[in-house]
Amino acid sequence: MTDDQLQETTGGDLNLRKLAHVMYGLFALGLISGGLFGLAVLAAIVLAYMKRADAAGTVYARHFDWLIMTFWWGLLWGGLSALATYIFIGWLTGLVVLVWLLYRIARGWLALFEGRTPSPIQD
User: Fold this and answer.
1) Residue 39 contacts by C-beta under 8 Å, 6 or more apart in sequence?
2) What is the Cα–Cα distance from 77 to 81, expressed in whole angstroms?
3) How far apart are CA 5 and CA 12, in angstroms?
4) DSSP codes of every residue in 63-85
5) More confident residue, 44 or 89
6) pLDDT of 38-69, one tens digit each?
């Protein structure tokens, strides 16, 4: 079995693949709700950090890392966009950040459905 093929691995009593789907869903819910369910994004990230050790050595670890990195980079660029609203370009950069976040979530989630790991560049 290659590294890019997903294996059925359990983290405690919860299947890591199902957990990854839940985390992607929570992250997407928080984004598309316009912040109304912003705690869903935080819940997804907390779950990713908590189950990261259980996923170590599996392909799911890459999905957890993908979500964590997406969150932190999105937070950084979102914060910079909020600061840029003072010079009237923050709304445009904020929209770019939102589109980038949705792209990252869609790309990672589709990779999970297809049984492979997320990567920025596909062969």
Assistant:
1) 30
2) 6
3) 21
4) HHHHHHHHHHHHHHHHHHHHHHG
5) 44
6) 899 999 999 999 999 999 888 899 999 999 99
Nearest to 67 by CA among 111, 13, 6, 123: 111
Handedness of CA 37, 39, 43, 44 (dihedral sign): positive
Query: CA dist 15 to 20, 22, 97, 114, Å?
Result: 9, 11, 31, 17
Residue indicated by tokens 């990252």: 104
Phi, psi of 117, deg, nearest 5? -90, 155
Strand partners, 11: 14
Read off the amino acid at residue 98.
L
